[in-house]
Amino acid sequence: MGVYWSDIVDTNTEDREQFIAILARNALKSVLEEFNLTPKQLARRIGERVLLFSSDDILNIRWEEYRQFLAGSDPMQAADREFEIRNVEVPQSLRRHFEHVTRVVRLREVRAIRGFTRINPPGDEENPNVAQISIRRLDWLPAVEVRGEGIFLTLSKERLHNWEAAAEINVRADKVQRAWVSEWRQRHGEGEPSLRITPRFLLIHTFAHALMRQLTLECGYSSAALRERLYVSEGNDGMAGILIYTATSDSDGTLGGLQRQGTPSRIEKAVVAAIKAMEWCSSDPLCIEEMMTVASGLSLAACHACVLAPETACEEYNRFLDRAMLVGIPGDTTVGFFSDLIEG
Predict the structure, then answer these.
(1) Percent of the chain whose predicted confidence (pLDDT) is above 90
(2) What is the C-alpha separation between 55 and 176, in angstroms, rounded?
(3) Residue of 161, 153, 162, 157 whose CA lies nearest to 268
(4) pLDDT tens digits, residue range 147-191?
(5) What burial letters (b/e) apply to 245-267, b meaning 16+ CB within 10 Å?
(6) Stretch (H or E) spanning 72
(7) Which residue of 9, 108, 123, 184 could cross-link 82, Cys pair, CB 3.0 to 4.6 Å?
(8) Res 54 pLDDT > 70
(9) SS (H, E, C) 222-251
């Protein structure tokens, strides 16, 4: 909506529909026709988006992104836009594990610098534990806009619910959760961190790392060029997806090599290879027996030889990883969500 966006947002909610109706006679006529909306519908959507942007709840923002990835888009309508996705048929061999595979042909990411931290990662939204970039509060932030591409996948909810019910899986997740709460309290005092480490979170996060490592081999990107974005929330209707993407200021972000790995034949090959690579680590048996992470306890079966990634690629600073969630442990492969892919 170009130059009219700020005026529309600043208009009172009660008057916004009337204001849009006036603009619809000329300035916004093409926008309403393109999206097949009435002024009232557009006003409601803008109101919802304003509330979303004013919220500090990151989970709400991710829900919006998650829904957009699942909704799909018309390639013809998205030809000139900065966001285009194409839904892909899930390969037969992966349908027990995945519900959706989506090629993200193009995306735009805005990265803003809010503050700095050293030694320890930042905390949660309520206790960020970062040094502000200015003594006084600013109404702007330094930012960079980058474009790229990626692959979005969601796990099978039915299989995930059955898997999460296993006692051994919850024991492993609880071990990491206790270590996380203890570490958080040492830095922030009493209370609980907003992030809860669950079997679902460990599974999706570790799978994202495994897939990133495999995709660097398949499409030629460096390991530092790929990034993860996790979509995880609990419950029957919770999120269970990942976005592996590249977005850089140079041409690496738009070469097309990554999103093409989302075609049925290629994603099938990449997923199977990624899981099989997790079956064995050059640091085993120390790694699978959790000896490599005993100092912090924030990960279990994880080390630089198997699942750790460059810290710029990981949302959680290489914490909360456990490849046993993917392939199981010696003598009990049922712990692994993808164990049958290896056996098959």
Answers:
(1) 47
(2) 29
(3) 153
(4) 899 999 999 999 999 999 999 999 999 999 999 999 888 887 777
(5) bbbbeeebbbbeebbbbbbeebb
(6) none
(7) 108
(8) no
(9) CCCCCEEEEEECCCCCCCEEEEEEEEECCH
Residue-wise over 45-67: b if at least 16 C-beta within 10 A, else e?
Answer: ebeeeeeeeeeeeeeeebbebbe
CB 243 within 8 A of CB 69: yes
Confidence band for 318, pLDDT divided at 50, 70 and 90: very high
Decide if 306 contacts 283 (C-beta within 8 A).
yes
Report the run of H or E that residue 186 belongs to, with start and end. Answer: helix 167-188
Quick one: which of 97, 171, 162 has its CA closest to 329? 171
3-state secondary structure 275-307: HHHCCCCCCCCCCCCCCCCCCCCCCCCCCCCCC
Q: How many helices (H) and strands (E) does the chain have?
A: 11, 7
Instruction: Supply the Cα-derived Rg of the chain in whole angstroms.
Output: 22
User: How far apart (Å, rounded) are the C-alpha atoms in residues 241 and 109?
Assistant: 18
Structure tokens, 220? 């030629």
If phi > 0 it is left, if psi is from -120 to 50 it is alpha, else beta; for residue 191 that is left
Cα(50)–Cα(159) distance, integer angstroms = 36
What beta strand segments (E) does 157-238 contain? 227-232
